[in-house]
Amino acid sequence: MTQLPPEHPDSARPMTRRELREAEQRAAAQAEAAAGGFSAEPIPAPRPTTPAPIPATQAPFPSAAQAPAPQPTPARFDFDAHLAPGAPGPRRGAAQPSPNERPQPVTGATATATSSASPFADLLADPHQSVDHDAADDEPVRRKPSRAERRAAASDPYDHYGDEKPKKRRGGWGCLVALLIVAGLGAGAYFFLEGPIRAVIERFEPAADYEGQGTGEVIFMIHEGDTGSSIGDNLVADDVVASTDAFLEAIDEAATAPVFYPGAYRLAEQMSAKAALDALVDPANKLENTFVIPEGTATVDALPRISEGTGIPLEELQAAAAEPPANYGLPAEATNLEGFLFPATYTLDPNLDAHAVLQTLVDRQFQALDEAGVAPADRWKTIVLAALVQREAGLKDDFYKVSRVFLNRLDPAKWESGLLQSDATVAYGTGNTHLVTTTDAERGDASNLYNTYVHPGLPIGPISNPGDLAIDAAVHPADGPWLFFVTWNLDTGETIFSEAVEEHDAAVEKWLAWMEEHPEYG
Fold first, then answer.
1. β-strand partners of 132
2. Whole-angstrom distance, CA of residue 35 vs CA of residue 24
3. Of 404, 422, 411, whose CA–CA distance to 464 is shortest?
4. Using one digit for the tens of pLDDT, what is the confidence trace for 489-520?
5. Which residues fall within 8 angstroms of residue 250, CB to CB, at 6 or more apart?
6. 44: left (phi over 0), alpha (psi -120 to 50) or beta
7. Which residues of the chain have pLDDT under 50?
8. Which pLDDT does position 435 carry in this prediction?
């Protein structure tokens, strides 16, 4: 820092940059005046301040006449103005002019150099660059924008883009989220409204119905306690009418309320609902001493059908069925008539008693076994397997595969445990002769002698009365490695056969899903 001469009024303190520049200008003006023969305009002295001691090593300036030769005033290098981009700005208030001081003119060389050396020329064109001017030298100085300035810049929507308003762009993720939300709402609405909407549609749609009197012949049974709805369901099962609703509508539209009597009736396939109703109430179509035993019917369910067709009291038929099996010529292993009442349509002599009627059905079963090539010594084993196949199989071709599965499981080389694991046998042992589904507790009950989940080998006796197809499947099973099967669609009888347990597990899951959609089977 430069020191003033001792006689200088401010020599007692260090000189500021402004004072130093003014002193240099005065000295240059005086030297120029002395050399050119004219006096320079006096420059006012700076405001007096309290003197500060000057180091003894600093020599005082000589008089004006003895001052060194004038030198061109160099362009002042402002360190703060040449900071690297991003560096901190200058310290404010380092040199402030006095209110009584008048700024001195700057020589042309100084002004030009200062202007060309200033890096603020470009910054002044940028509206976002905060620029201030030093009060002492009027040079631009970079500074941090104030909060008000930042808010003003942020609130101007056209500040960065001129006069054109920027276009907003919708992000892809936003569209995807919106699409997922709409899809979810649609799926939820469908889930909750599907049932009511379908019910409304079905309400206004006409019930499915056939036309005309139908073709062929069907012996149809009406059982004791049947209602219009149950009769309609049985007519649909025998493909006599197209829907139960159509049959109920025909009943509602009848001139007089129809009365149904138990027994066998001669009908046709695919009749209109009105034609079927007219046939059932026509006494000419009622068959005397006629009844139908469907394939797979258990004896406990066959006896009421026989009673309804023949007029023989059910109690008499039950007493006849309780007679020793040997009275009917059954194998020694038999403990009752189960499996030996051949399923068919019968029209019998009205003079037959209960025992004679049952003997007729047993003899017909022996005939079927003989026609299938079964020796009398093999009747028992064949009937037990055929009765199991009859209850487990659905479609015709599946009978032979189901028979093979059980025979493979009876082979220790293929199935070590020997457990057939048939739900139909477990259900029969619990007294349920209409369904083949069971519970975990029922499958674990060892007291049920028909439980093939616990007891290996064939069940202890037949579980139904098999027909010709089941007997033939027991005698001539299909060839295959299958060890598992599951009928996953109980309406159509579709069955999946598997050799590996993993494949069978997947098939069971498919069956369980179907059962959830058809709770009437559970």
1. 141
2. 17
3. 422
4. 988 889 999 999 999 999 999 999 999 998 88
5. 273, 274, 276, 277
6. beta
7. 1-11, 37-41, 43, 45-46, 48-138, 141, 156, 158-163
8. 77
Give the pair of three-digit tokens for residue 490: 């109980």
Classify strands 263-269 and 494-498 as parallel, antiparallel or unpaired: unpaired
The model's pTM = 0.59
User: Measured between alpha carbons, how far is 281 from 278 in angstroms, rounded to an integer?
Assistant: 5
Angle between helices 299-310 and 354-371 (to 10 degrees): 120
Instruction: Please provide the distance, in angstroms rounded to a whole number, between the alpha carbons at the two ends of the chain.
Output: 105
Question: CB of 207 within 8 A of CB of 245?
Answer: yes
Q: What stretches of 37-161 show up as alpha helix (H) in DSSP? A: 108-117, 121-124, 147-154
Please give the C-alpha separations between residue 167 and each of 158, 161, 176, 202, 359, in angstroms, as whole numbers.
Answer: 11, 11, 21, 52, 95
Distances (CA, A) of 193 to 187, 197, 245, 251, 254: 10, 6, 23, 31, 35
Any idea which residue has 């009060």 for tokens?
135
Instruction: Please give the Cα distance from 335 to 398 (Å, whole number).
Output: 29
Please give the C-alpha separations between residue 10 and each of 19, 49, 50, 63, 306, in angstroms, as whole numbers: 10, 6, 7, 17, 141
Answer whether 267's CB lies under 8 Å from 278's CB: no
Six-digit token string for 17:
């940059």
Determine the Cα angle at 136 with ends 134 and 141, to 5°.
15
How far is 311 from 341, CA to CA, in rounded Å? 18
Could you tell me whether strands 263-269 and 215-222 are parallel, antiparallel, or unpaired per DSSP bridges? Answer: antiparallel
| pLDDT value of position 95 | 40
Our measurement of the distance from residue 492's CA atom to the centroid of its chain's CA atoms, rounded to an integer in Å, reads 28
